[in-house]
Each structure stands twice: as structure tokens, then as C-alpha cells.
Amino acid sequence: MKNDRREAFIKYLASKNDWCTATNLANYFKVSTRTIRKYVNEINEDQLVIASSSQGYRLVSREKVKADNHYTSPINRIKVILKELILHTEGLNIFDLGDKLFLSVSSIEHDIVQANKMIKPYHLKIRHKKDTLILIGEEREKRRLMSFIISQETSEEFLSLKAVQNAFPNYDVFTLKDEIVSILEEFNLYVNDYIMNNLLLHLVITVDRIKNNNSVIHSSDLNKLKRNPETEAANKMADLLEDQYGISFNESERYNFILLLSSKTTLLNYQSLTSSSLNHYVDEHYVNLSQKLLKKVHERYFIEIIDDEFFVKFTLHIRNLIFRAKNEQMVKNPLTYKLKDSYPLIYELAVFISNQIQLMENIHIKEDEISYIAFHIGSYFERKKNLEKKIVCAVICPNYYDMRLQLIQKLERKFHDSLEIIKVLSDSSEIALLEQIDLIISTLPIKDEQTPSVFIHPYLTEEDYEYIQIQLNKLSKRKHNRKVKQYLDLYFDKELFMKNVYLDSDEAYIEFMSNLLHKKGYVSKEYGKSVLERERMSSTAFNNNVAVPHSMHMDAAKTGICMIILDRPVTWGKEKVQVIVMISINKQQRELFSPFFEGVINILSEWRNVHELIKAKDYDDFMDKMMKLLNESE
After folding, report:
1. 43-46 long-range contacts, Cβ below 8 Å, gap at least 24?
2. Where is the PRD domain (predicted)?
């Protein structure tokens, strides 16, 4: 773009001080709308000065664009690009994508290189043909990728007690938690930390709405609900909140709260409320509506949400949301800004669901209500993400007095960081119905040979704890190795694998390998100096014929591994080595890379493994041997 044309374009936008459509700009400059998009991308190449939206283009400061844009970090941009490509199966125009993300074409092209590395384990690839980007691969893998992208947005802080307290400073959430736990124990009931935080947030929101004259009023019959420990506990909690905050729970609010407390996995009780029994207590219209909404999410975003606890809470929430909208009740959500700003993809899901409800129910949904839906969606993915790190367990134990509760509490206290109990059964008859269970802990003999199990005493002994820990270690290692295998192809590159390259010194190897990484676009030209600086501080050679030279900084453009294996040893400092592994680490990818790196280092730390790997004839043979060693370590 010539300088005089560039200046004229910017000057014209400045004079308008408002949005200008691509058509109007094209007419004014007597060019096509496609040329206008090219102008914008070229002007934004070095510094982002023109914002774009559905309204067209306008001149803004770089700071303003950053404030409006949720996708400024490289990893967030990549996630959004992938999400858009998954949704647009026919492909996307690269200029349109640049307009949406406030990015130049060159920036998007750079992100695509990174994205292709990220999606390699899913056997997907982004193709760039002329001005069109398209995601190539199987539908099933695209769905897996979409779930991964959404789940990566959540964090352990998404629904922490601190987050709940910060959102509602007028309520003492930590004291309320102690009081709720005490009531649950009184009725021989138990919830884990995740469910407790969810329950507390619901209680605080309910109290806050009632105080602001926003009670829910439905035709609800409390007599329909069976009298059981959950009913008694819910009523006692409602009484406590009425006394503390000077409010009144009407029959509908109590009915809702009892249903919430009775959802199947909220309380570890095999007789509790499930998605299939929900229509006995809630109008079937709302149950069907929730099913339709989740089906549409699946069709649009390829995300399948199958979870009883989520479905019960989601249905109750949708029913109450529709009531508030039809009665024009205002709700203020103090989490709106945080959810919208910090979790843009989850918020987008909530917007989609809200739009569908508006169409189906002929109502208007306000932004604060959208944020509550985002909260439910985000909580589901946070839960799912946390379960991936833990061993998911079912416990079989007859419910004699308080024996079962005590057993669950002891297991939870002892194995809190590694075990998640999601089902408690009285006998083994329902085992066949369980899905996604890694381990069964039982006080009764069981015949299930499909799922690993541990037989324990009703009152746990030290031997019981040891047996459980052994099984947890074994299952955790297996889960970890499965994850490491997924990343073998992602971080190893055939063009960065060499055999029998003999140089004069460790410094020569560092220079050679860092130059190769630079040529392939992994690191800057100065990377070798940083690796040498680290090497001079302390040798990176192990005493088992392996050297792992690396930089002290995570400043690489891409994360990757350059490897040389040698038939005969070479000198590396005071050691002899036959395997040299140079690692480049990108800061944004360190969380994904860390578990993989740890797994590879564990393999390389044993001499017998190294001895096997150096026999590899070529790259494919090396990868086969690495995979075999990972399998053997399970």
C-alpha cells in the first residue's frame, strides 16, 4: 500500500470519527470491499490502529482495541481461530478472520503454524488455500478438540470459595460453609469441596434475590417430595438463612432448593434425583427444553454434555430464568464482567443458549442472566477438567447408620488430591450402569473384572490405605503415560531428529542444534548463546549417556525437541553421551509441555531405556521404541 493512499485512508476514517462500512469505503476509494480489507490488514501490520466489527471500520487507539479485544494473548488467539474453523466446516476467509480478531494476515499465518502443532495429536490440519483457511480431519476429532479448547478456559479459581466471597462481599461465605457442613453431617450426608462451593454460590444468590424481592413463584407441591435426609437438611438450611438474613423462603424456593440438594451426584446417594426422574418434580416442558438446548449446543459446537448433576441444575436454572424474564424481574450478577472478560469462549456458549431460549420462549434475556448460564457451563467444564487429573471412583458400602458417611469422609481426607468419589452404592447390582469409572472401592466382594477394584474393611485399616494407594499410583501412572503418548508426535519432529552426527565438542553440538531450531522457526538467532550460558553454569549431561541442553528462559517461538542419537559416545563436559536432546520451550505452551517433558525425562533417566533407544535405525524406529518404553512403564 503506497504511503499517500495509506495516509488518505487513515485521514478519511479520522474525519468520520465513527464506523464506516466496507461498501461505503469501497465506493469512496473506488476499489472493491476485498481491497478495503487488504488496506486495513496492511495498515495494522505494525501497529493496530483500525478496529473492525459488523458495523464496519473505525480509527481507534491501540490501547482501545486491546481493551475491547479478549484475544490478545497468542494462546487465546489460537483457541479462537480453531474454534471458528471447527464451526465453519466450509472454511473461513483469512481477511474476515483478521477483521474479527483485530489481527493482520501475517499474524494469523504465524498463529496457524502454532495451531497446527497444537492439533497434531487430534490428526487435524489447517490448510491455507488462496484466501481460505479450512480445518481438515475427522468430525470426531474436531469434537474432541472443541471440548479441549473450552475446558482449557477454566481454572481452579473458576468456582473457588474466594471467588464466591469476592463476588458477594456482604455475605460471610466461609462461616456459612461451616454451618452448612454441620447440617449435612447431622443428617448423615456428605458433599465434596467442588459441590460445596457450587451449593454455597447457589444459596448466596438465592438469598440475595429474595432480599431484592425477586422470589421465584411456581405452582409447587412440597408434598410431592419424599421425606428423606436431603429434604430435612434443605429445610433446616432454609430456616437458618431465614433467621440470619431476615427473609422468607416461599414454597417454590424451598421446592427448588430441595430438588437442587437431591441431584444424583450432589449428595452421594444412589436413590437421589436424576435427569430421568426430574420430570416427576418439574414441568416436563422445562425438561424437554433443556434437552433441546443441550442438543443444539452439541450440533453447533460439537460439545456433548452428559451429566446428571449438571442437567438437574441447568433445568432448574432455565425454568427460573424464564419465570424472571416473563415477570420482568431484574437480577444483578456481580460475576458478569469477570466471566465475559476472562472466559470469552464459555461466555459465547452462554450467549448461544440464551438466543435459543429467546427464540423458543419468545422472551428477552438480559446480560446478567447470560452470565449465570456461563457460570453453569464453566462449572461443568471445570469439574470435567479436574476429574481428568484424578482417579474417578465409585464406592460400594451398605448404609448402616453412619458407617458409610464415615468411610467416605476418611477416603476423601486421605486421598483428596488424587481420588474423586462420584458414586456411592449400597451393593454391586448397579456397577454395570456406571460410566467413566477408573476404580471401585468396595466393602463387599465384587465380580466385576472390567474395572480395577480394591476390597476394604468397613472401618479402614492401615493395610486398606496401602492397597488403595498402590492402585491409585498404578492408575495415575497409566493415565499420565496415555497423555504423554498423545504429545510424542506434537513435540518430536522428523526433520529435527538425526543419527550419528559427530562434532568436536559440546559447544559445537549446541551451536549446530540451536542453528537448526532457528532455521525451522522454533527459536531466535540468539538462542544458542542462552543455551551455552546455562551449560557453563552446570553441565546438562546425566551420568547415563544423555545430555539435555536448554535455555534458562522460556522465550522460544515454538516448543519442540531436537535430538541426536549416536552409535558411539562423545565427550560432553566430564561425561560421555550418546543421546543429545535440545529443548525449546514457549512460555504459553509450558503447561501442556511439562507433563510430556517429565515423561520423556523419566524414560531417558534409566540406562536400559537409553541403551534401547540408541539402537534405533531411524526416526520411525525411534518413535516405536519410545512408545514401547512408555507402555512398559505403566
Report:
1. 43/1, 43/6, 43/9, 43/10, 44/98, 44/102, 44/103, 44/104, 45/104, 45/106
2. 167-271, 281-387
